[in-house]
């Protein structure tokens, strides 16, 4: 059975509307994706760290309740679990404030076993953080040597814009290792002050990988791939947009779900997906993304996951 292994941070997202808290849910970019994949019947495991407190215990139990292997989540007895404040605007988009002591990051873990055609999801500041960079790179190199598919979500927040120059070598190394790269207009505006997908693809991505997905909020998703494939995909409109906090994370989850569902393996990745295959996996990504926007939770709802679980054939 193919497996998805994610490596990333865990946080408690406290969500505000009109400056008043309306909810608090376990979160973290890769964490959100894996919860949705677990709910959809995909075998998943998470590599991370958290504190030995009420929040940390809730995060570990939430992973397990949703079918995600949490055995590689390291719990530090003398650390507090991080939190983030997410302030929703009138469009239900979020502005974030993070509370995390990054210099205390350690990331001590044993690698979960990785098999050929497994998918590894990584991204955000966690994937470029200098403090834990050696451990992250070590795992990514191991996964690549085992024949896994590496999916990199750039997800570079404005809160780290002053660190771009320092982190550029790590970003470039991630691009070099990745088979598929997804980035948003906001990411590349923060990092390079560029928002044109063609310019970004030519100047920043194509040298490293020919599989690039560019998202831009409510605007169409842009695909750039080998063979000169260039395509736009209109987003799937949610019936009632409550929060867009998990939209990008669940785009990733839906895309990876599509890789598993449609049997897109390492050999297919290397030879190049057909336009029809791209259509299928991006359609899946868009549906997951639309579903998560209909609540303040960061992951697809259980009923949506159950329907997709029934469609999944290993």
Task: Please provide a written account of the structure.
This protein has 314 residues and is α/β, with parallel strands linked by helices. The protein is 37% helix and 26% strand. The chain has ten helices and 13 strands. The chain has helices at 29-39, 54-65, 133-145, 164-177, 185-192, 197-205, 247-261, 266-271, 275-292, 302-311; strands spanning 3-7, 11-17, 20-27, 43-51, 68-76, 83-88, 94-99, 119-123, 149-153, 180-184, 212-216, 219-225, 229-233. The strands form two sheets. It has a nine-stranded mixed sheet, with helices on both faces. Strands 3-2-6-7 form a four-stranded mixed sheet. Strand 6 and strand 7 (94-99) form a beta hairpin. The chain starts with a strand and ends with a helix.
């Amino acid at each position: 059975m193919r497996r998805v292994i994610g490596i990333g941070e865990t946080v408690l997202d406290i969500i505000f509307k009109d400056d008043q808290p309306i909810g608090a849910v376990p979160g973290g970019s890769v964490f959100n994706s894996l919860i949705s994949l677990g709910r959809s019947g995909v075998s998943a495991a998470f590599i991370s760290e958290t504190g030995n407190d009420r929040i940390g215990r809730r995060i570990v139990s939430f992973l397990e309740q949703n079918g995600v292997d949490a055995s590689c989540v390291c719990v530090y007895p003398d650390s507090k679990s991080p939190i983030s404040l997410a302030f929703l605007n009138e469009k239900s988009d979020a502005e974030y404030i993070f509370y995390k002591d990054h210099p205390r990051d350690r990331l001590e873990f044993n690698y979960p076993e990785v098999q050929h055609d497994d998918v590894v999801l990584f991204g955000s500041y966690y994937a470029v953080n200098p403090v834990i960079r050696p451990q992250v790179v070590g795992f990514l190199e191991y996964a690549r040597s085992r024949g896994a598919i590496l999916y990199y979500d750039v997800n570079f927040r404005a809160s780290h814009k002053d660190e771009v120059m320092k982190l550029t070598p790590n970003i470039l190394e991630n691009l070099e290792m990745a088979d598929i790269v997804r980035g948003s207009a906001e990411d590349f505006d923060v990092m390079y002050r560029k928002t044109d997908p063609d310019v970004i693809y030519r100047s920043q991505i194509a040298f490293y990988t020919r599989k690039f997905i560019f998202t831009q909020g409510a605007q169409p998703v842009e695909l750039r791939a080998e063979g000169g494939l260039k395509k736009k995909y209109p987003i799937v409109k949610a019936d009632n947009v409550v929060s867009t906090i998990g939209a990008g994370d669940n785009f990733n989850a839906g895309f990876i779900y599509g890789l598993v569902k449609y049997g897109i393996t390492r050999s297919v990745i290397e030879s190049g997906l057909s336009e029809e295959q791209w259509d299928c996996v991006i359609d899946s990504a868009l549906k997951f993304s639309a579903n998560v926007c209909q609540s303040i939770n960061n992951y697809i709802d259980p009923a949506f996951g159950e329907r997709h679980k029934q469609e999944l054939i290993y």
